[in-house]
Amino acid sequence: MLFIIAHDQEQGAHGLIINRPTGKTVADLLSSHDMGMLATLPVFIGGPVAGDQLTFASFHSQKSGQIIECRPHLGLEEARELAGEKSASVRAFIGYSGWSVNQLETELGQKAWIVRDPDMDAFDISKTGELWPSIMRSMGPWFRLLSAAPDDPSRN
User: Fold this and answer.
1) CATH class of the domain at 2-114
2) What is residue 154's predicted lDDT score, i.e. its pLDDT?
3) Nearest partner of 13 among 3, 23, 21, 27, judged by Cα
4) What are phi and psi of 143, to 5 degrees?
5) Distance CA 105, CA 97 (A)
């Protein structure tokens, strides 16, 4: 599941994959630093771009509950502070997803993406493993089949 952070007709778009854990924590990657509350935070694969960079982002819902704001590229201190707040979900990512100008629009026109409004349940780390299948099952029978397909169709 991908969360689009920014989209600009002159710059392109970028986002973060929010449901692909690496199996590592922040402490595993930054063992020489005192990470405090961030130490046990799972690290996710944010996308294929800049796969050698660790970044922190926070997600929180506006009062209406219909808009989720993302603050990417947090500094270490800011990430530590936000990790202690109940209203924000702080995540650690390796890499990000990016599109050049008009690339995302072309892919959307080809129906390469399933677009859905976000909700804060998507950022509950305890639900990460069930997130994709749950969303797909809720969209109907064809999507239910798609949710059970392996990432690599040749392994089917």
Assistant:
1) alpha beta
2) 66
3) 3
4) -70, -30
5) 15
pLDDT < 50 positions in the chain? none
* Tokens found for residue 11: 């710059």
H, E, C per residue of 101-146: CCHHHHHHHCCCCCCCCCCHHHHCHHHHHHHHHHHHHCCCHHHHHH
- Domain chopping of the chain, boundaries: 2-114
Give the residue from 32, 17, 31 showing the smallest Cα distance to 151: 17
- pTM, whole model, 2 decimals? 0.83
| Spatial CA neighbour of 118 closest among 57, 82, 65 | 65
pLDDT, residue 155, reads 62
